[in-house]
Amino acid sequence: MATQNPFDMSALFANFDPQAIAKQLQEGFSGTSVPGIDTNSLVETQRKNMELLMSTNQAMLAGSQALIQRQAGMLQEAIAEVTNAAKSLSTSGNPGEVSAKQIELLQKAFEKALANSNEISSMIRETQDTVTNKVNSRIAESLQELKETVAKVK
């Protein structure tokens, strides 16, 4: 019996088709003309914008899934470490040894938490940078396309 992955959110976007939306826009503009404006250019610009929306959503989804999976891995690692720490502490009878081991375990736990925090921050930053770069690039292209379309109006 196969179970569905609870972190797989691709079903949310299964029916989203930027090509179909662009086609609907094109059909909506067919027969409509604005003197001096190429409606096909406007439709093409919107198609590209929809593709950007889809690709950025996919990038965010992939980043979120990777983040969730890594956090689950971190939790499993932490559980294993706590189990090992409990075994280690239970074998020591000397109070001085127990105290020294506790301090050592606390130091390691703090360092691990800091490293995990940095890793999570890095994963989030990489996803944000990817999406931001795509959006910034598309905005620049869209403005250029708009400028070219307006320049054709006489």
TrEMBL record:
Q: Which residues form the Phasin domain?
A: 43-138
Give the organism the record lists.
Answer: Sedimenticola thiotaurini
Q: What is this protein called?
A: Phasin family protein
Write down the superkingdom of origin.
Answer: Bacteria
